[in-house]
Amino acid sequence: MHEIALASGTLAELLRQSLNDGRVKVPTSRQRVAQALLAASVDHAVSLNLLLSRPSPSAAFSAVGLFRLQLDALARGIFFARPEFSSDKQVEDFMLNDRMPLVKPPNERKRQIRLDELIAQLREFIATVSPELAKAGLHNRFSYALDAFNGFVHGGRDVVKSYQEHSKFGLIFHPDFKTLANISLHATTLSLIAEMTQFYVVAGLKSMTFSNIDKRDQIYKAFLDAGKRVEPNGGG
After folding, report:
1. Which of 27, 136, 184, 218 is most buried (CB neighbours < 10 A)?
2. Per the confidence metrics, is the pTM higher than 0.85?
């Protein structure tokens, strides 16, 4: 797990710097909201990989909670980045009242837009900006246990179920290796989506340029190699 989280976290840190390099320095209200939320989402990826790279068994639970927070920040960042998803007034109301916009689904009262609805828009966005990731199925992996992730954040019963007695460490969070490895890798892949959103949508650029492409390629290759270890015949 240490090597996977280290490779994933190294790329996440590089992506975080890339977002900073591609930020709009004098932003509109929409750009200010979007790029702050996108940056926060990548910070969660950096932090959770730092936790998963530690040998302590006490670190993994908080990493799972951070993945849920990353989903929220990324989905909101993309929602506010795109005028097709949110109006200028909704952006202003969010900053004024700290509340997500109201929606009126069929046969329901008005209510705030939910995370699962934001994630649906996120899937749509990925299919648009990166068809290869959508084809690989990444856009379906965000909510494979959204209720459980909510429980981890708010202290639900899944917290109780996931803690087990260990002969050496006592009562500890005890997920399987593949679950933690997937969270590590998915968090950094979502950071790639945040980077693309910052450059192409928020900043409105036609392409992404990088100061040290060789270093980036090397770090990205290490990340891909780490992903191979999570395949059915991979190690841990």
Report:
1. 184
2. yes
